[in-house]
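retry 2 of 3: previous attempt timed out while embedding pyridoxal-5'-phosphate. Reduced batch size to 1 and resubmitted. Inputs unchanged:
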Amino acid sequence: MTSFQSGVDRDRVRELKNAEDARFAAAHSKSAALIERARAVMPNGVPMAWQVGSYHHLPMWIAEGRGTRLTDVDGNTYVDFNIADLSMFCGYAPEPLVRAVSEQMARGNQFLLPTEDAIVVSDELGRRWGVPKWQYTSSATHANTEAIRVARVATGREKVLMFEGKYHGHLDEALVELDADGRVVTEERGVPADTVGGTVLVPFNDVSALERALERRDIALVLTEPAITNNIGLLLPDEGFHAALRRLTSETGTLLAYDETHTHVVGAGGLVRQWALEPDLVVTGKSIAGGLPFGAWGMTDEIAEILVQRKGPDGERANLVATGGTIFGNALSMAAARAALLEILTPEAYAHTQRLGARLAGGMRASVEAHGLPWHVPHLGPRAGYTFQPAPIHTGAEGFAAADELLTRLIRVWLANRGVWEAIVGAGPVCGVPCSDADVDAYLEGWDSLLDALTA
Ligand SMILES: Cc1ncc(COP(=O)(O)O)c(C=O)c1O
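retry 2 succeeded.
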């Protein structure tokens, strides 16, 4: 039977996947032994229980990573094209990061007091993104949490608007989705039921829906990625969408935050700079500090004023906004961010990854066409992707409808068995800074061989 969405035979996909899963298991006996041991001390035998659900096969356990390559405990080596969900865009163990982190560690990693690197990092983030003031957390999730809280204080409103298909981390407000009837519901267990009243979800690229939602003037913040990069592959904005978003948020007194945790990889200042967007707040993290725990949120001077504490007559400080954490903005993460920003995420590095990303997307597209498959291959800077329909998607709902979980999981295990790793299923490959033409060749070879097998 040919699947409606993807144009490939369902039974063939299942048959190939079963064979590839068995081949993967045979090559990972030491990982299998470790997970058995680990089940006694961790739910599902992994540090984060959900990690197991990400794979149909057992997760492999890692011995080390260098450059673009991972080696697992069984001695298998992979070129990593998901680079740990973009947190390792700088590569594994790049020399400037190893040096900066080792030197800082030797001097002390955390003081609950600032180090000068925080000024250098803030200067550099401000130069890149064009917003002048910055604050730090230990993850992008927490940076989004704090951006939302300060937006509530700034506007005197409580609700947040996000777009269907988004992912902004594991904060309650962002763990909601639309059900089949278009109602907002919690996405995972443990999220309080009343969270759904605080988040409004509308389709990306739908200006009328956005206008209707904002005209009630009860939304503090629109939080979005400039291009949606999670859950549904790659969803790009229609011409004029961001201009309409800026106009409508300004007209209704709503703040606008761009989450560039993933999209910063397109170049210095991310898509905000590349597309000349005008945010009130910017959020980033992950590879900005080379994958060390790090989150940052930038803001206008006006918003920063809300955080400025003024002393009362007895030296007391009032009007605190709910932000902060003991190890946020610590010396080690700041040293890592300084080294990553100034020595690794350079104009040359971005140009290199963009060139490889274009090559990768072009090669994947050519192969799709040569095999006569009705798939679309989106491209954004260093990143390519795959959508199992011929046209690009315009909304999250279209993305979910085009998804094919079995096929996506086959792609991953097929590539893994040929030395190419993509941790997040369906995300699409990304070329990190140490990526080479030979790495792109390896991906394209694996991709081409899969399409051969699918269409044989
Ligand atoms: C756009 C975006 N924002 C925020 C996050 C959360 O990042 P973290 O897991 O580092 O908190 C992610 C993670 O994938 C993301 O893709």
